[in-house]
Amino acid sequence: MIRILSFVGLLATSLFLVSCQTLSKDECIAADWRVIGEQDGSAGHDPQSQFGKHVKACEKAGVIPDQTMWNQGYQQGLLQFCTPLRGLSHGQSGGPYNRVCPPHLEPSFLNGYTLGNSEYRKQQDIRNLESRIQSNDREIDELDDKLADGKIGQRDGERNLRRKQRENRELNRDIGRAEADLAQIRREIEYFRQNPPIPTPFN
């Protein structure tokens, strides 16, 4: 049993390491580091962390990534990432912002990112509230069954039922307020899409 568990552990570790690799051996050998850097920049990856992953991934292939070429591409990629509308979509997806945008582009990017992320977080809030209601519904069904089978006292059972039902009413009110907030956020998003801010010129 211990041998089997050890094998399973090693297999899981191997799969984890493979999934963390940014490039395969063949990709390392044929890499155009400027193109890879541009892809990383356009995705908003943290430069130090991402380049370090490439170095690690290419060690076994005996390839040393060209950091100069990669960085040139990365800076070009940032110009694609650090836009107001890209900030909006990145925030809507719940993606993290790694503080990578140049100072003259960051304010307008953050305008979009903050707005998009507010939609993402509000949707998460609604899902959490709905999950709590579903959990209460399951408990209500269990209490009903126990009451019907005489497995719980009538007084205690009915009191717990009323408490869960009251919680659900409050949660539904919270959902209503959150949905109203979400509708307002989406109106702001629509206006933002039609009137994106203009980045400050680089001096």
Protein model, in words:
- There is one protein chain.
- This protein is mostly helical and 203 residues long.
- It has two domains: 21-81, no CATH class; 84-203.
- Helices cover 76% and strands 0% of the residues.
- It has eight helices and no strands.
- It has helices at 2-20, 25-29, 33-42, 47-58, 67-81, 84-92, 106-149, 154-194.
- The protein is elongated and about 75 Å long.
- Mean pLDDT is 89; it is low at 1-19.
Helix and strand content put the structural class at mainly alpha
Rounded to an integer in angstroms, the radius of gyration calculated over CA atoms is: 26 Å
Write down the secondary-structure element order: HHHHHHHH
Structurally, the number of domains stands at: 2
Distance between the termini: 66 Å
Overall number of strands:
0
From the spread of the alpha carbons, the general shape counts as: elongated
List keywords for this structure.
mainly alpha, 2 domains, 8 helices, 76% helix, 0% strand, elongated, disordered N terminus
Outline the fold blueprint.
Layout: H1 2-20, H2 25-29, H3 33-42, H4 47-58, H5 67-81, H6 84-92, H7 106-149, H8 154-194
Helix pairs in contact: 3-5, 6-7, 7-8
Brief characterization of the structure:
The protein has 203 residues and is mainly alpha-helical. Helices cover 76% and strands 0% of the residues.
